[in-house]
Amino acid sequence: MAVSDGADVSELAAGVRACDRAAVGRAITLLESQLPGDAAPAQELLAALLDDSGGAHRVGITGVPGVGKSTLIEALGTRLTARGHRVAVLAVDPTSARHGGSILGDKTRMAALANDPAAFVRPSPTVGALGGVTRVTRETILVLEAAGFDVVLVETVGVGQSETAVADMVDFFVVLMLPGAGDDLQGIKKGILEIADLIAVNKADGDDAKRADAAANDYQLALGMTHPASPTWTPPVITCSALTGKGLEALWNHMRTHRRLMTDSGELAERRADQRVRWMHAMLTERMRARLAASVAGLLTDLEAQVRSDRLTPAAAADRLMTAFEGPTDV
Ligand code: GDP
User: Fold this and answer.
1) Helices in 65-189 by DSSP H: which ranges?
2) Which of 45, 69, 202, 246 has the fewest CB atoms within 10 Å, measured from its CB?
């Protein structure tokens, strides 16, 4: 099947498998494409690559802007490529579509990794809302795995649902924190502790080293009050400095230990299987909603107004919409 730029899907798949960077770039562009004619070839490409995907260590990294995500990814990534790993970096930032480019997409960040032949850095896709960005990022991970990248780092901004979305597409989720425990613990979101596989207090250097230790102790206490997601893994709290490299070796060792334990216990396979099923449901919901909204748009507006003014109950409105929706598709 031909894609909109004239290429052939099987040729493109072969290029990806050979890790031809131009082919990898074009494959990702195909996944990002919103041209209706590209949807089928994109899925055909993924199907062709499926057997070669799944091999990477998928790691998510979150934290507030300025915590040191890109500095840490650059420092960790270059260490890993120096040891023979092939490292891909992706970003999830649903605000980049609205703002027409984002901090995460800034090419000057991670300059060393971006120029490293064993690395591949891709900014956040600009395909609308979080659902679109999430889909493209998940599919891009599969393409990068087929191209032979064995470590995929997915960076996200520490806000809202993008954190949960990224945690749900990776094997290991790292939450970066700043020193300054007293203030931080006040505002710490309980939800983030529940999805963290490791907490790293960054900038543990210079005058902040002591404060970082204190913060790590506090996070350790806070973590102790949450229910661990895995019977095999207790999320560790470490301090590190992306600037000096302190703690990065420990961070990587934790990731490797986690992978070994989770693989041996079968939890890694289970986690990925759960993620795939949740992804299917999310896409199904999104498609159903889009189809429903398109087919009963007028009635939807009308019933929404009636519900708003309390002339109709929400349940009755939902029933009428479903009846209107199902009617024509049944014939
Ligand atoms: P991001 O927004 O989370 O990606 O943060 P950046 O990686 O862009 O870092 C924000 C600022 O913090 C930059 O000026 C970095 O040089 C600095 N920074 C990052 N990591 C460290 C660290 O470990 N120690 C210190 N002292 N500064 C750091």
Assistant:
1) 69-82, 95-99, 111-114, 130-146, 160-167, 181-187
2) 246
